[in-house]
Amino acid sequence: MNSSIIRFVLGYVLKVEAVLMLLPCIVAVLYQERTGFAYLLVAAIAMTLGTLMTIRRPKNHVFYLKEGCVATALSWIFLSFFGALPFWISGEIPSLVDALFETVSGFTTTGSSILSDVEALSHCALFWRSFTHWIGGMGVLVFLLAVIPLSGGSHINLMRAESPGPSVGKLVPKIKYTAQILYVIYLGMTVVEIILLLISRMPVFDAITLSFGTAGTGGFGIKGDSIASYTALQQWIITIFMILFGVNFNAYYLILFRKFKKALQMEEVKAYFGIIFVSTAIITGSLVMGNMQFADALRHAAFQVGSIITTTGYATINFDAWSQTCRTILVLLMFVGACAGSTGGGMKVSRFIVMVKTMTKELNSYIHPKSVKKIKMDGKPIEHEVVRSINVYLITFMIIFVVSVFAISFEGHDLVTNFTAVAATINNIGPGLSMVGPDCNFGFFSDFSKLVIIFDMLAGRLELFPLLILFHPAIWKELFTQKITMRKKLKF
To answer: Where can this protein be found (predicted)?
Structure first.
């Protein structure tokens, strides 16, 4: 285990967070808010610790998937803990567990909240709250790979450990350039959304914070009614960009370099848009039958389908009051999620495509036992290892899901609340149904249940295994053995 490179990465994460935390300080100055001192204090602490951790550069820069997973999981824990401190120190969120819940929800782009009155927060806190979505959307380690001078040929393991989806690869030969391309696309789309919202006459602060939430597919609103009080045009703009940020960024890379045919032939993207179209059509029809005007029904249906499948979590209406059919569709979309390689959460469309193709292959093998057919995606055969990893992911997901629902069930809340609370957080969506619906929050849960949900949010964002590996005894045994060996060498 290369512990020195893990320490080095964690140090850089703290330094990057310290720099990013200066932005809410600027917001505090603009709005003359004293809460900015809390962010400045935490930024100073994070920068000091980060500097101490990176003064001594590691001799060995090469690390494998094991180190990549540990570094990723610890980075997100460090990031969340220090990101929560300003909320707690400023007193805007008095409970440290609540502050951690809110911050983890932000960085993991979940959007679930413990706040009953979000509008009572300072502009500084609202900005940081939304900005955590933007930071976590593409991933802080992807950002590090784009800007810091890490060398060695195995750094794709960091990207694989942090990026959502069953498989992650390079867009270009060097991983640093891949990370830079991803962030250029990410930043460019965010800026375009901000500009369009400003043209629609949305206030500057609102346009920036809501675009951060849309880009990261997060869902923290700055108003108590989420997006309901904004104009129809502004809601449509947000709808379109939520859906666009749920598309596999490989498609944007192909479009950027004028490979339009390949982009249009991506099976996952076609399936993604097909699911959105069918779901929107069914919900629109149901709402129209419930005496809602067609234009309003289409807008609300498209918005909520886009919000749920991309795991953004914004809301224009209390969809918990919709028909059973509509709510069932939305719950199913929670599990489907967006495309792999996007900023969206969930189990990912590509996994479902592979699982359906695997099921079809097994059925055909019963009819034609001697036939040998490869499962293909975009015309390319899928390796057995990928299919196996998807099956393992599904089993692990279900185990964590069941255990989490059981763990929070002791508080006595109804099954719909518990089921959708876990579904909404492990899939990084935000609102669920019943007591955690779009008009409610998660503040009523006990600290124990909140910690369970915090684990679910982190596990969902990191695709389960990078976080689970921290609980493997072999990892800590190896680190402990290394420390003892180093101490013995120092004595001699």
So the answer is: Cell inner membrane
